[in-house]
């Protein structure tokens, strides 16, 4: 625990806040720079005396629960919260908080894009797509059960790979496995990831072999890929990734170089739409898992 740096950080963050930042009225007689100690203490649900001792370098080591309350009270960003925990001698908590509710910031970007895009979770579940994303990759909202996760479809239903050229398969398979291992290492009690892994170990020798290699990395799609569209043909795209602040969601945006043939093919998606996915879907779709 670094008492001097912790005290300085708390004081500076308190002085940087303004009453209006936390819903308080400044009043005509306020002389304190930023918020008063008693105001931050109230916001953090702690005693003013405790906060005073921390700022004066004479307090005990705060608990993780106390630090979390201070982070909320001081309206810290995730980077600032992690810094606070380290100064106090604690390991910062995981930023991952998985939810099917798409980050409003990512949705605002998705709604304004005129190129294929989708929002996925950190373990490869599609949470939202724009119309061009559906036209390029199909409607992922139709998947249920384990099929909601791209890694499951990739290994348990190899027909999923037909949408990508063969040179992409090995690299992406390894990326998916390494991403699942990272998620499970981050939280061994994550029942969702554990269930996916267990199913794939039983269903796919290829997955089992890759899992045994213990590769670890974030599940992020390769930056360049060649997608096979049955109507338009092969489209080479760049995949840009925007990660949400809590790191549990990411926005994948597919683009092509302006003026190129691939760019023209992407533009055709607005004409083709999702028709190729709707025709005969009931005949070709595998059995849904509940």
From TrEMBL:
Pfam families: HTH_31 (PF13560), MLTR_LBD (PF17765). Gene3D superfamilies: 3.30.450.180, lambda repressor-like DNA-binding domains. InterPro entries: Cro/C1-type_HTH, Lambda_DNA-bd_dom_sf, MLTR_LBD. It comes from the Bacteria. Residues 33-81 form the HTH cro/C1-type domain. PROSITE patterns: HTH_CROC1. PANTHER family: BLL4672 PROTEIN, BLL4672 PROTEIN-RELATED. This is Helix-turn-helix transcriptional regulator. It comes from Conexibacter stalactiti.
């Amino acid at each position: 625990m670094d008492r001097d740096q912790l005290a300085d950080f708390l004081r500076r963050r308190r002085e940087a806040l303004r009453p209006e930042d936390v819903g308080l009225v400044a009043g005509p007689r306020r002389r304190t720079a930023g918020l008063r100690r008693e105001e931050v203490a109230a916001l953090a649900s702690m005693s003013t005396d405790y906060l005073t001792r921390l700022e004066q370098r004479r307090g005990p080591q705060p608990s993780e629960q106390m630090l979390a309350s201070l982070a909320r009270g001081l309206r810290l960003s995730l980077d600032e919260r992690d810094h606070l925990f380290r100064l106090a001698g604690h390991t910062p908590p995981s930023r991952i908080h998985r939810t099917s509710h798409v980050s409003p910031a990512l949705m605002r970007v998705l709604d304004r894009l005129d190129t294929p895009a989708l929002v996925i979770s950190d373990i490869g579940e599609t949470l939202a797509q724009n119309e061009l994303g559906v036209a390029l990759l199909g409607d992922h909202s139709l998947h249920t059960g384990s099929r909601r996760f791209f890694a499951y479809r990739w290994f348990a239903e190899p027909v999923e790979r037909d949408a990508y050229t063969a040179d992409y398969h090995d690299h992406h398979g390894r990326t998916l496995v390494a991403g699942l291992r990272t998620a499970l290492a981050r939280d061994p009690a994550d029942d969702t990831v554990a269930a996916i892994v267990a199913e794939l170990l039983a269903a796919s020798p290829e997955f089992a072999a890759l899992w045994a290699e213990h590769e670890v990395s974030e599940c992020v799609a390769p930056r360049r890929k060649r997608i096979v569209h049955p109507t338009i043909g092969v489209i080479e795209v760049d995949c840009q990734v925007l990660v949400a602040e809590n790191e549990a969601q990411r926005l994948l945006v597919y683009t092509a170089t302006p003026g190129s043939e691939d760019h023209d093919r992407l533009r055709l998606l607005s004409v083709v739409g999702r028709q190729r996915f709707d025709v005969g879907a009931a005949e070709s779709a595998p059995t849904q898992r509940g």
